[in-house]
Every structure is written in C-alpha cells, then in structure tokens.
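In this section we walk through a basic example: taking a raw amino acid sequence and producing a predicted 3D structure, encoded as discrete structure tokens. The instruction is simple. Fold the sequence below.
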Amino acid sequence: MRGRKLAYSGEPHTRPMKERVREAVFNLVGPAVKGTHAIDLFAGTGALGLEALSRGAARATLIERHFPTAALIRQNAEALGVADSVMVEPANAFIWLQSQTPAVDQPWLVFCSPPYAFYVERQADMLSMIGLLVERAPLGSTLVVEFDQNFASNLLPAVAAWDIRSYPPAIVAIFRRE
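The resulting token sequence is shown next.
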C-alpha cells in the first residue's frame, strides 16, 4: 500500500503521528510486524494500523472514539482493499480495553498514540492502560507508546525494559514481551 494517500478529515482533535516518526517506529519494530494483531488504541486516521497490515500484520483493530473519524477509517480500509482484515471500534480506548480483551492467539502490535495532553490530564488512566497492556500482552508482542516531554518516561511500568527514542516533539517507547 506504499504511497497510497489516506482520506483525512482535518479534525482538530486528531493528531496524526508525523510521517518520519511513523517510519522510524516501523523500522524499529521491523519484521516483528508479520503475523501480529495490530491494535491502535487512538486510531485517528488509522494510518498506524493500516500500515501494519501493509507490512504483514494478520489483522488490525482500530479504536477511535470520534464516530465520523471512525467511519473515515472504514472508508480508507475499503479503498485500500483490506476491510476484511480491519475491525474499527467507535469507542473510548480506556473503556474498550477494560471491557474487551483482544484475542491472545497471536502476538499483538499495540500502538498507543493519544493526544499528548492525556499524559498530563489523564495520567493515572494512561499509566493504568499501559500497565494493563504490559500485563496482558501475549509473548512475542510489541507495544509502541508515543508521548511528549510533558510525560516522565520513568513512570512507565518496568521502565528498564523500554527502548525510548526521541523524535522531537515526539518521544517513542517500545516494549517487547519476550
């Protein structure tokens, strides 16, 4: 799907991950994408989950609380010919993760790229969510968390196990469950 453009509403609540950061993330994750269940908790445009499919993920679940944006993600999946491999959940990621446990029959590739303000305004919720993911992820899973300088990365669970990289203003932390 390289080079294909995604429809984007331009909604101010959506902050797509910068293209250079997204490329760096996929270079860091590398071949671990293949065969995973990609889960994008704050999907926005859906670019992360759709790119994961393009790079070999078996399926993708994209969580987006803004209904019109979720509908746009579905349209993008159909336009790219991957609608059968994509589940778009118009839901709040915090609530969805508490009530849904993604299947553990294959490793996960989880993207957690919320509005940066959530790490300040909803810090306890974010830490709980990340802790839950670290705890529940099947062996072979990879978690990718994006934040900015307003979040202290030393608060991440099992902080020594994270590979933390800076791509100003973004900071990306990658955790591998082995």
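Looking at the output, two observations stand out. The CA atoms of residues 66 and 113 lie 15 Å apart. Residues 33-176 form a domain with the Rossmann fold fold (CATH 3.40.50.150). In the next section we compare this with other chains.
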